[in-house]
Amino acid sequence: AGIGDRPVRLGGLVKDGSVRIDGLQSKFIVTDGEAEIAVSFGGALPSLFREGQGVVAEGRIIGGRLTASNVLAKHDETYMPREVADSLRDKGVWQGGDS
What we know:
Layout: E1 8-14, E2 20-22, E3 25-31, E4 36-41, E5 54-62, E6 65-74, H1 82-90
Parallel strand pairs: 4-6
Antiparallel strand pairs: 1-3, 1-5, 2-3, 3-4, 5-6
């Protein structure tokens, strides 16, 4: 079984300038400050979805792109796995919610 056969959960920041929305089809890039992956999503984005903010996308990797079945946006670690939030903070990319 290849990686595309398993659901994946990807967390990081929405890359500035990467969001393209056409109706309910959206494309954007998620980055951790080093690696990045293109995401496509065919649903309504959450109200907190913003460039430069934390996001978690769940779906399958097909052709090097994550085809998301679910997108969660949050300004803190509530939906972001702690190791992702810690990694982003360690790289100085994201300050994230210790408020």
